[in-house]
Amino acid sequence: MSIALYTATVPVLKQMLLALSDVLKKGEAHAQQRNFDPANLLQSRLFPDMLSLVRQVQIACDFAKSVPSRIAGVEVAAYEDTEQSFAELQQRISKTLALIDGFTSTQLNDSAIKEIVLRPGTPKEKKLSVEDYALKYGMPQFFFHVTTAYNLLRHNGVEIGKKDFMGSY
């Protein structure tokens, strides 16, 4: 049995972005309830050489928009990475949800694109089939950053659990 690329990507990306939005709301409420600067959470890291919560959310959104865009053969929308507040991260997630909500199953399942080239023209250039790109690269990257954002909030005392991570399905 095979699974359609649309089914394996867009609904999953939407589910997890909505869950990410919800855990960020809980993070912001946590900062307000504890009366500390939300920037402490937004700039938190699990280890000094890791990216901050803000950057984790930005990259999760980047993968959420790039996976269906590349499969459909459309240009990946560029976002500026200027978010510095929970409200701005929520706007980025909303913008990403609206973008991926615009993709149809036909665009992804019947795409003429058969190969995705990552980092073209560089020594790190890599060519992947569309299926390998989606299922072995793009979606795992997306999940890594969503999971890391969740872990940063949980590590900093936000009361969230597996149900929050999964969201509604």
Q: Give the C-alpha Rg.
A: 17 Å
Overall average pLDDT: 95
Q: What's the architecture in CATH terms?
A: Up-down Bundle
Q: Report the principal-axis shape.
A: globular
Q: Briefly, what CATH class?
A: Mainly Alpha
CATH topology: Four Helix Bundle (Hemerythrin (Met), subunit A)
Helix content: 55-70%
Which structural class best describes the helix and strand composition?
Answer: mainly alpha
N-end to C-end Cα span: 22 Å
Strand order of the largest sheet: 1-2
SSE series? HHHHHEEHH
Structural domains: how many: 1
Low-confidence stretches are: none
The fraction of residues assigned to DSSP E strands is under 5%
User: CATH homologous superfamily, by name?
Assistant: dinb family like domain
Main beta sheet: 2 strands, antiparallel
| Structure summary, number of beta strands | 2
* Number of helical stretches of at least 4 residues: 7
Describe this entry's structure for a reader.
With 169 residues, the protein is mainly alpha-helical. The chain has a single domain (5-166), classed as Up-down Bundle (Four Helix Bundle (Hemerythrin (Met), subunit A)), CATH 1.20.120. It is built from seven helices and two strands; from the N terminus they run αααααββαα. It has a two-stranded antiparallel sheet. Helix 1 (5-34) packs antiparallel against helix 4, helix 3 (53-72) runs parallel beside helix 4 and helix 3 runs antiparallel to helix 6. The two termini are 22 Å apart.
